[in-house]
Amino acid sequence: MNRILHLVFGVFGNATGLFLFLAPTITFKRIVMKRSTEQFSGIPYVMTLLNCLLSAWYGLPFISPNNILVSIINGTGAAIESVYVLIFLIFAPKKEKAKIFGLLVVILAVFSVVACVSVFAIHDLHTRKLICGFAATVFSILMYASPLSVMRMVIKTKSVEFMPFFLSLFVFLCGTSWFIYGLIGKDPFLAVPNGFGCGLGAMQLILYFIYRGNKGETKKPNKDESLEMGLSKPNL
To answer: What is the 3-state secondary structure (H, E, C) of 47-99?
Structure first.
């Protein structure tokens, strides 16, 4: 029974994860059409790319047996996020472009170090899983935490104009699915970060329902403020 539930929540996690990765496509369509990144920040997409790379690596059989579904969705996510980062680099202002490119180099270096060390320096499967799982956990939490500035903006402006409902919903559903998947599989490296994501998604939904009647009625963010997630207007 546990195996069936494990598979069910893994498949559901893949489905919600795919929607979560595809949620910013309208944002990037806007960026391409306007040929400008406006006030959007590229940092969450670079951090999500690193998270996807590390999580896809962690799910491989020679690192963490019975977690191939983790590799499938995160490998897909890595490809999608790579496209987002490339688009951002093409249309971002020079200063922002340099910052995002520098961060991209750093995250690729981090992934390369983790991958090489786990393959060439560590031969014990338990130790390999421990190190790769810890790295994936840290950056999964950072990925889920990246929209915190938007939550702060929602509270400050009392408007959900900059926090799309469906993006918040899929953060909650994806986090919940993988949290349960991790609990069933007794894998703390999946349960802990996704439990955090589940809680953060729930907080976003609560904020949305508190302030949804105010969207579009309050001031826009200052030029110095970057948007950390999704669209400038909810995709409803």
So the answer is: HHHHHHHHHHHHCCCCCCCCCHHHHHHHHHHHHHHHHHHHHHHHHCCHHHHHH
Could you give the angle at the alpha carbon of 231 between the alpha carbons of 230 and 235, nearest 5°?
Answer: 105
Q: Are 92 and 37 in contact (CB under 8 A)?
A: yes
103: exposed, middle or buried (C-beta count within 10 Å: 0-12, 13-18, 19+)?
Answer: middle
Read off the pLDDT of residues 167-224 as tens digits, 9 standing for 90 and up.
788 889 999 999 999 999 999 999 999 999 899 889 989 998 888 877 454 455 554 4
Q: Which residues have C-beta within 8 Å of that of residue 172, sequence separation ≥ 6?
A: 197, 198, 201, 202, 204, 205
Tens of pLDDT along 73-105?
999 999 999 999 999 999 999 888 999 999 999
Cα–Cα distance, 168 to 234 (Å, whole number): 10
